From TrEMBL:
Residues covered by the HIT domain: 4-106
Coiled coil start-end: none
Highest rank taxon of the organism: Bacteria
Organism: Thalassospira indica
A Pfam family recorded for this sequence: HIT
Protein name from the UniProt record: HIT domain-containing protein
Length: 142
């Protein structure tokens, strides 16, 4: 067992830190096709949801609800998809993805379909700033 939290290298390569919630890093997936955030609990050696303590499961649930609400409000998303797959990246992480009836793969899942469209510098900076402000505000209420 490792006693220090370390972000999985694949998550580090594919995302940018937006902010920290009470439990989790909130990361922006570098795919401009969808408003896509990933929450990673800052605890070492977590693989599956049941590895979280009872208290941390509640905190993560509250964070996911806050992130989902921000995505729906900020992007006028039709709905959010929330998933913890972990088949490619074993570190426990939770995807929260804004979905739209006119997105390229609606109503199917986003995984393994198409090619990620990285943010250009201005768009990425603007999206990060907006999400950071929204999430810092939302997390104050947790």
């Amino acid at each position: 067992m490792n006693n220090a939290f370390t972000l999985h290298p694949q998550l580090a390569a594919d995302t940018t830190l937006v902010t920290d919630g009470p439990l989790s890093h909130v990361l922006l997936m570098n795919d401009a096709r969808y408003p896509w955030l990933i929450l990673v609990p800052r605890r070492p050696d977590l693989v599956d949801y049941d590895d979280l303590s009872t208290e941390d499961r509640k905190i993560l649930g509250d964070e996911v609800a806050a992130v989902s609400s921000v995505i729906k409000r900020r992007f006028d998303a039709f709905k959010t998809n929330v998933a913890m797959l972990g088949n490619m990246v074993p570190q426990l992480h939770c995807h929260v993805i804004g979905r739209f009836k006119d997105d390229a793969v609606w109503p199917g899942p986003v995984w393994g379909v198409g090619t990620a469209k990285p943010y250009d510098e201005d768009e990425g900076r603007d999206r990060l700033a907006a999400l950071r402000a929204d999430l810092i505000s939302a997390f104050k209420h947790l």
